[in-house]
Specification:
By secondary structure, this protein is of the alpha+beta class. It is 46% helix and 19% strand. The protein has two domains: 55 residues, Ubiquitin-like (UB roll) (Roll); 63 residues, 434 Repressor (Amino-terminal Domain) (Orthogonal Bundle), CATH 1.10.260.40. Helix 2 packs across helix 4. The structure holds zinc ion (ZN).
C-alpha cells in the first residue's frame, strides 16, 4: 500500500495495527490487532473499507469471547460440519434473512438462544434432523 496521504500530501499510507478500546455492555473492551493505515509523514491514521470489515469481525469476536458465545469461525465450522448453507441455517434456525452471513462477518452478534441452538445441533445426535423435519426439509 503506497497511497499518498490526502491530509499532508507528503507521506504514504502504511498498514499498521493498534490496540483499541470499545464499549461492550457498558464496560471497556480492549481489542488488539485493529488494522489502520498510518501516514509515514504526519502520522494520521485512517481505516480502509477492507480494514473496517476485518476490524468489525475482530471486535465482534472479542465481544463474543467476553460473553462466552461462539466466534464467527466456530459458527462457520459448525455450519459446514453439518453441510448447512447460510441460507438454510437462517431458514431453519431463525435469526432473520441473511442472519448467518451477518454472524459470520461479525456484523451482528448471535443471541444466547441462537448460540445454544447451534451448540445443541452440533452436539446432540438427531437435533438437526428434528429441526429440518419441522421445516419440511427432505432428510438426507
Ligand atoms: Zn500525512
Amino acid at each position: 500500500m503506497s497511497e499518498v496521504c490526502t491530509l499532508c500530501g507528503q507521506g504514504t499510507l502504511q498498514p499498521a495495527t493498534v490496540v483499541d478500546t470499545f464499549n461492550h455492555a457498558g464496560k471497556p473492551l480492549q481489542v488488539a490487532d485493529i488494522e489502520v493505515s498510518r501516514c509515514s509523514h504526519c502520522g494520521e491514521e485512517l481505516v480502509t473499507a477492507q480494514q473496517y470489515r476485518k476490524n468489525q469481525l475482530r471486535v465482534a469476536d472479542a465481544k463474543r469471547r467476553a460473553d462466552g458465545l461462539l466466534t464467527s469461525e466456530e459458527i462457520r465450522t459448525i455450519r459446514k460440519r453439518h453441510h448447512i448453507s447460510q441460507a438454510e441455517a437462517s431458514q431453519w434456525f431463525g435469526g432473520g434473512a441473511n442472519a448467518f452471513s451477518k454472524y459470520e462477518r461479525g456484523e451482528v452478534l448471535q443471541s444466547m438462544a441462537m448460540d445454544t441452538l447451534l451448540r445443541l445441533v452440533d452436539t446432540v445426535p438427531g437435533a438437526l434432523d428434528f429441526i429440518r423435519a419441522r421445516h419440511g426439509a427432505v432428510l438426507p
